[in-house]
Amino acid sequence: MNTQTLEHMKQLRLYGMHRAFDSSLSPQSITYTGDELVAYLIQSEWDDRQNRKIERMTKAARFRYSAVMEAIDFDASRALDKNQIQRFASCDFIRQKQNILITGSTGAGKSYMASAIGHQACSLGFKVMYYNTNKLFTMLKTSKADGSYLKQINKLEKQDLLILDDFGLNALDALNRHSFMEIIEDRHGEHSIIIASQLPVEAWHEIIGEQTIADAILDRLVHNAHRIDIKGESMRKKMKNKY
C-alpha cells in the first residue's frame, strides 16, 4: 500500500510530500502520530514548492552573479552603512516602491551588491529582472524593428524589481532616451528599480541628455531613492592579490 501511495504522490507531482513520506517509512525515522504525519507531509510539500518557485524566479532574473547579502564585504575602506545595507534584506524598499542607486569605481562591487539584493528579493517571492543597461537598450531597439517593443516594455513593467547594471557607460541617443523615460515613467510610484553606475548621480544628467527629459527622469528616480556610494579599491584586484 505504501508503494502505491508513493507512486500516486509522484504522479500527482507531490514531490516534497513523496520524499517526506518515503523518509518516514525508514526504520530510523521519527515515530509520528497521525496528525503529526499529515502536518509533516503538508509542510514538506509546501517547502518544496516554495523552493522550486524561488529557483524558477532566480533563474528567470538572469543575475550576473550568484550573490548573497551575507557575503557583502563591509571593510571600513568601502565606507558602507552596514545597517542600511542589511535593512534592504527585508525588501521593504520594494513594498514601499522605492529605488536604490549604487555608485562606485570599476570593480568596487556594485554589480555584486545589486545582484545580492535581487537574489534576496527573489527568495521573498518578488519578481526580479537583471539587465546590463547597454544590452537592454540594444534589445529594445531590436524589438522596435521586429514589432515586439510593447511586449518587452510590458514585461519590464510587471517586475517588482528591475536592476539596471553598468548604467552610463555610453551616452543615450534619442531612441534610448525615449525608452529609458518610458521605463522610469512606468515604474514611478508602482515598482522599484536598482541602478548601478560607475558615474556619480550628479553626472547622469549629461549621460541622459536633453535637459527636459533628463530632469523628468532624474526627478522620478532620485526623490525616493536610497543612495549607496562604494569607496575603496577594486574588489577584483583585492581578491586577485589575496590569492
SSE topology string? HHHHHEHEHHEHEHHEH
Oligomer: single chain
- What is the global morphology? elongated
CATH class of the largest domain: Alpha Beta
Q: CATH topology of the largest domain, which one? A: Rossmann fold
Q: If you average the pLDDT, what whole number results?
A: 90
Number of strands: 5
In what order do the strands lie side by side in the largest sheet?
A: 2-3-4-1-5
CA distance, first residue to last residue = 57 Å
Task: Count helical runs.
Answer: 12
Helix content: 55-70%
- Give the percentage of residues in beta strands: 5-15%
Provide key terms for this protein.
5-stranded parallel β-sheet, ATP-binding, 12 helices, 243 residues, alpha/beta, 2 domains, IstB_ATP-bd, single chain, IstB, Rossmann fold
Written description of the protein model:
With 243 residues, this protein is α/β, with parallel strands linked by helices. It folds into two domains: 2-60, no CATH class; 62-242, Rossmann fold. The protein has twelve helices and five strands. It has a five-stranded parallel β-sheet with strand order 2-3-4-1-5. α9 links the parallel β3 and β4 (192-197). α9 runs parallel beside α11 (211-222). It starts with a helix and ends with a helix.
